[in-house]
Amino acid sequence: MYTSRIAGIGHYVPENVVTNKDLEEFMDTTEEWIVERTGVNERRWIDPATDDMPSTMGTTAAQMAMKNAGITADDIDFIVFATLSPDYYFPGPGVMVQEQLGIKEIGALDVRNQCSGFVYSLSVADQFVKTGMYENILVIGAENHSGGLDKTTRGRNVSVIFGDGAGAVVVQRSKEEGKGILSTHLHSEGKHAKELALLGPNTAHWVDKMIAENDPKDESYYPYMNGSFVFKHAIVRFGEVISEALQANGYQSTDIDMFIPHQANLRISQFVQKKMGLSDDQVYNNIMRYGNTTAASIPIAMSEAHQEGKIKEGDLVCLAAFGSGFTWASALIRW
User: How many helices (DSSP H) and strands (DSSP E) are in the chain?
Assistant: First the structure.
């Protein structure tokens, strides 16, 4: 039986920095209001003048991850790409990365689990490697939120939170017992799907229908979030799924060297940190600089933490996410 490990990691964020002060110029908000409720100071939004898209950002992050792993595109056997904001309605971005990297005709899978998408994708890669089917899998999370946000006062509760970017890892076959990805845990609860959703466009409500009707009051084309409802569920599910991962491997929260939560809201991360009894040195947050980058948030944070020497060989690393669906997930890794 094989084990799987994260052999390489990388990330990419657009150069265009949008501060809270910048947002004050085109919506009725203040820096203090945003920081108090979300913890976000600035975020990266794609500059429309550039060629940045989820697939190109994912490709750049993947190149960094492969270099970090000491392998080339020729070594990649499979691609798993997580996003809620693909380049196109279809095809998905996984095949775009395969083409951009010049990889042979390997399989490419797109995962649509929003904020939990990267952990779900990591779980898929973990199973493929452990069964011996593949040896090196690219797992990518990338988002272009800025292209679909309501950047007016009407949409401020959502738009101030989100940013663009990409992160990637190489999940690689190993035979070293007790190290690598120890376990992953996945959950969903569809009855709350519309509490955090983008209801249009969809196959029953195409974009051209809105254009034809020219209804300026139609808000279905922008993300909707019942913020307080999502917050209350997130803090419960985070705790549950983290405990599940620890119990499955015989650990306690005090054994965690680095906890990397999905960067949904700094207040959620702080609540979970306090509940778990973790110090600031045991938790990595970067939502202050990048906002919520959904499927990209965990790999970006993990890549930065690794670069900064905050994740070292032998460390016990816990990943956890909660988001639209509702879906939630965790992974426990012995680095």
Answer: 11, 13
Same-domain pairing of 67 and 187: no
Q: What is the pLDDT of residues 266-317, one digit of tens each?
A: 999 999 999 999 999 999 999 999 999 999 999 999 999 999 999 999 999 9
Whichever domain contains 43, its CATH number is 3.40.47.10
Whether residues 330 and 196 share a domain: the answer is yes
Q: How high is the pLDDT of residue 198?
A: 84
- C-alpha separations of 131 from 82, 127, 200, 230 in Å: 22, 6, 39, 36
Range(s) of the domain holding residue 161: 3-177
172/196 same-domain check: no
- Reported as a single tens digit per residue, the pLDDT across 132-160 is 999 999 999 999 999 999 999 999 999 99
Residue 224: the pLDDT is: 81
Which residues have C-beta within 8 Å of that of residue 209, sequence separation ≥ 6? none
Inform me whether the pLDDT recorded for 167 exceeds 90. yes
Q: Which two tokens stand for residue 94?
A: 């996984």
Catalytic residues, which ones? 115, 262, 292
Instruction: From 161, 177, 193, give the residue that closes a domain.
Output: 177
Residues 282 and 173 in one domain: no
> Of 177, 207, 240, which marks where a domain is finished?
177
Q: How far apart are CA 302 and CA 183, in angstroms?
A: 17
Distance CA 214, CA 70 (A): 53
